[in-house]
Give the backbone structure.
Amino acid sequence: MQHESGGDGAVEIKVRDHGPYKVTGPVRIVDADGGVFEVEAGRPVALCRCGQSQTKPFCDASHRDVGFESCVRAARS
Ligand code: FES
C-alpha cells in the first residue's frame, strides 16, 4: 500500500491555521499504556491542537466552536 507523505518519504506534520495538526504519512499513534489507536493506512490524520476535542488525540472540529486561534509560522532564514 502506498502512503502519502511530505514528498520525500518523510512524515509531514502540517500546522493548520486555527486548527489541528494534519499528519500525513505512515504513522502509529500510541497511548501512554502502549495501546495503538486505529488509523486507516494511507490516510492523513488530524490531531487536536486546541485541547477541546472529545475524541482526543484526534480533532473533532471543536476548535471551531471554541474560536481557537493560532497561526504559527516557521522562521525563515
Ligand atoms: S484542533 Fe480540532 S478539536 Fe482541537
Observations:
- The helical segments are 62-66.
- The radius of gyration is 14 Å.
- The pocket of FE2/S2 (inorganic) cluster is lined by residues 19-20, 48-50, 52-53, 59-63 (CB under 6 Å).
